[in-house]
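Researcher: I'm preparing a figure for a lab meeting and need a structural model of a single chain. I don't have an experimental structure, so a prediction will have to do for now. The sequence is pasted below. Please return the structure as tokens so I can convert it later.
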Amino acid sequence: MALQPSNCQGPKPIAGDRKVIYEDVYQPKPVPVLHEIEVVERIHLVPVPIHHYVVKRRVEHCGYDC
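Model: Understood. Here is the structure written out token by token.
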């Protein structure tokens, strides 16, 4: 037996209150962050011994008296 189309449309839809749903989406965004670096050159004087030699020369006569 084939189904016959019905003349009954059924109940009409009723519109309810509208609801807004927020969907938060987070995306990374590069943000430059600057860091200042100060290089301080510190000079330290360190004593380093440098040896200097003084040479003295003398002549001695040994032996016969002249």
